[in-house]
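Minutes, project check-in
Item: structure for the 353-residue chain
Input as provided by the requester:
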Amino acid sequence: MIMTLEWINAPLAGLNLTAKEQGLERQGQLTKPPGSLGSLETMAVRLCAMQGVQKPSVDKAQVVVFAGDHGIAAEGVSAFPQVVTAEMIKNFSRGGAAICALARQNNAAFEVVNLGTVVDLSAMDKIVDNTIMPGTSNFAQQAAMTMEQLSQAMASGKAAVDRAAGNGATLFIGGDMGIANTTAATALAAWATGQSVTALVGPGTGLDAQGVTHKSQVIEAALLKHKAAMSSPIEALRHVGGLEIAALTGAYIRAAQVGMAILVDGFITTSAAILATKMKPEITAWMFFSHASAEPGHKAMMASIGAETIVDLGMRLGEGSGAGVALSILKSACVTHNEMATFAEAQVSPSSV
């Protein structure tokens, strides 16, 4: 079946401005000085607008880790071999990864979507097999994907959000797994932001200084090779992206179309978020950005979007793990907004607080 990208052109859901005003009004009535809960207040009010309610909730969160291998790994840009992608998918299935533990902590639904690995995998619990190809092509030599393969990857992201929406999820967290995916993410970020590769490139899974220099040279050469062809976000994603990054981009767009709040993780997922904003600039209204990645380029990526992260813990694991931590803070924003007493209920004079 030939896949198309026409669904991307559908409009995004609109925010409920009445619910936003009701949220702001409630914040003004709670037993605290105005603004004293800082970003917790603004996060709660944003969720009111997204969910169209006075008392929002992120108790039904859906975590989806998209996994896929990268042909660019053949250029020696990662400290780990490609077999690790498949091994980690098995670890996800067994519940042994960091994001698995964090999903359990937050009672979040969890699944992995396998888009294609160099190692064949048998059926496993919690793994959705959407294999498209055994990893992308080596974009140092040719485009990472055909348009059909890109369309399939983005449709896998859409389908994951549709499953989440069908299960009543109120928040979507996308995670990533794929050896060499920081190389693809850096290439996309350089294209999208106009920043130099050297300003964005980092160690990924643990490259030394010489390895980072080599990685930078590989990315720069690939961007030069594909420069003329990368005339749009879709073409950039097709030429130097990854299957999981394409799926994440599709998932973010679909989540905003169906009116579901999005919690973006770190370096890889932010590259997908940037591509989504290039296609749908208004999508940032549906996004929270969880944490400041320790990858050097993440700060510049965030600046290009004009957004701030919820926490900075020096994390750079991926998987959606930073979002798993930030989810607890979004829950705190909701519980304080929903469960604090108003001045009238507590019989406290506003002037005494």
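Outcome recorded: Residues 69 and 178 are 5 Å apart (CA to CA).
No further action items on this chain.
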